[in-house]
Amino acid sequence: MAVWDEWTGQSEAIAVVAAAASASALGGSGDSSMTHSWLITGPPGSGRSNLAYAFATALLSPGTPEGDEAAARQVAARTHPDLAVLATERVIISIEEVRQLVSSSQFSPSVGRYRVMIIEDADRMSERTSNVLLKALEEPPPRTVWILCAPSAADLIPTIRSRVRTVRLRVPAVEEVAALISARDNIDLQTATRAAREAQSHIGMAHRLATNEDARSRRQRTLEIALGIRTVSDAVLAAAALLALAGDDAKAITEEKDAEERESALRSLGIEPGGTIPPALRVQLKNLEEDQKRRATRSLRDGIDRIAVDLLSLYRDILLMQLGVPSDPINLAIHAQLLAAAKISTAPQTLATMDAIATARKRIESNVSPALALEAMLITARRTGPTT
C-alpha cells in the first residue's frame, strides 16, 4: 500500500510531494520538483502534519517513493534515525528547541537518502526564533530536507517564506471526510457524516466526535448554553459554564496521555509502579510534570478555541437563515432551535455576535483572562423571547 493511499480530498498537494519523492528516489536530486525546504499550509484539521510525515516516509524509504513498511513504522513511532521532529506542547516554540534541531540537521543521513527535519506548528516561533531557523534554510547540508507546517504562509516571516516551496492543503468536503472516517474507524456513515459536518471537515475533530460520546455531549451542551442566554447574568454564568466545558475537554485529552508518559518514565528509570522515587531521579519527573502543565495550558486554550469555532458555526447557521440563504446548516440536528433563534434576532445582531467571538479569540491568544473574554463575548449573544 502506498503511503498516500489513506489520503482524501488533497489530490493536488499529493501530486506535488509524490512527484518530488519520485524524483529523489530516481536519484534526481537536481530535479526542480525536489527542493531542500518545504512549507505545508492549510486550515486546522486539513492534515498538515500528517502530510509532512507521509512525505518523510516516502523520502526515507529505500529505493521507493511509495513508502517502505519498515520506514513507515519508524516514522510513525518517530524513531527513524534520519528523522528529527519538533512538535511543542507549549504555547510557543523556544529558541533553544530550534537551535538544537538546527544543530542536528548538520549530520549526514545514517541509512537513507536524506535527513528529514519536521517542525509542526512553525507559526508558534517568534521572530527571533525564526531567524535561527532562517540561517539553516539559507545554507542547508546537501542531503537535509526541512518540512515546516503552519496554517498559512503569512504566519511565517517573509525571509523564511521566500526560501521554502509551499504546498497548500484545502478543506476536504464533508462527504470525503465522512467516507474516510466510516472506512477507517468502522463508524456507520450517518454518524460519520454528522461528525464531519459538525467538525466542519476537520478530520481529527470529526474522528473524535464520531468515536467519543462525551465529546459529542460537550459540543451539544455548548450550543444549548449559547441559545439560552437572555440577560447579562445569563452571559456571565454561561461564560463560567463554557470555561468548565473547555476544562473538561482538555482534561479528557491530556489525562490519559499524562498517565502513560509518567508510567513510561518510571519504567525507563527502573522504578516499579508505586515504588519509592530516589531523590536523585525526582528532578527528571519534575521536568516531566512541568512539561505536562504547559501542555495542559495549551490544551485548555485549544478547548476554548474549539468552543469558539462551534459557536461561530451556530451563529453562521442563524445568519444564513435570517438572510434567506438556501444552505444546509452545519448544526442540522438542532434545525428547529436554529429557526426559532433566527426569528428573535436580526442579521446585524448575529453579525455583531460573530465579530465578538473573533475578538474573544484574539484576546485569549494575547493572554487576556479567558473568563473575562468569554463574558464580554457572550453579552452580545443576549436574545429575548423563547427559542423552543
CATH superfamily of the largest domain: P-loop containing nucleotide triphosphate hydrolases
Give the strand line-up of the largest sheet: 2-3-4-1-5
Give the helix level as a range of percent.
Answer: 55-70%
Summarize the helix and strand pattern as letters: HEHHEHEHEHEHHHHHHHHH
Number of strands: 5
Overall shape: it is: globular
Radius of gyration, taken over Cα atoms and rounded to an integer in Å: 23 Å
The figure for the number of domains is 3
Unreliable stretches (pLDDT < 50, length at least 5) are none
Q: What is the residue-mean pLDDT, rounded to a whole number? A: 87
Structural class: alpha/beta
Short description:
The protein is an alpha/beta fold. It has 15 helices and five strands.
Summarize the topology.
Blueprint: H1 11-25, E1 37-41, H2 48-60, H3 69-76, E2 83-86, H4 95-104, E3 115-119, H5 127-138, E4 144-150, H6 158-161, E5 165-168, H7 174-185, H8 189-198, H9 203-211, H10 213-227, H11 232-268, H12 279-323, H13 335-343, H14 347-365, H15 370-379
Parallel strand pairs: 1-4, 1-5, 2-3, 3-4
List keywords for this structure.
single chain, 388 residues, alpha/beta, Rossmann fold, five-stranded parallel sheet, 5 strands, 59% helix, nucleotidyltransferase, DNA polymerase III subunit delta, DNA_Rep/Repair_Clamp_Loader, EC 2.7.7.7, transferase
Please, could you describe this protein's structure?
Pfam families: DNA_pol3_delta2 (PF13177). Keywords: Nucleotidyltransferase, Transferase. GO terms for molecular function: DNA-directed DNA polymerase activity. InterPro entries: DNA_Rep/Repair_Clamp_Loader, P-loop_NTPase. It comes from Glaciihabitans arcticus. With about 400 residues, this protein is an alpha/beta fold. The chain has 3 domains: about 10-170, P-loop containing nucleotide triphosphate hydrolases (Rossmann fold); about 175-210; about 230-275 and about 290-380, no CATH class. The protein contains 15 helices and 5 strands. It has helices spanning about 10-25, 50-60, 70-75, 95-105, 125-140, 160, 175-185, 190-200, 205-210, 215-225, 230-270, 280-325, 335-345, 345-365, 370-380; strands spanning about 35-40, 85, 115-120, 145-150, 165-170. Strands 2-3-4-1-5 form a 5-stranded parallel beta sheet, sandwiched between helices. Strand 3, helix 5 and strand 4 (about 145-150) form a beta-alpha-beta unit. Helix 4 runs parallel beside helix 5 (about 125-140) and helix 10 (about 215-225) crosses helix 12. The termini are far apart.
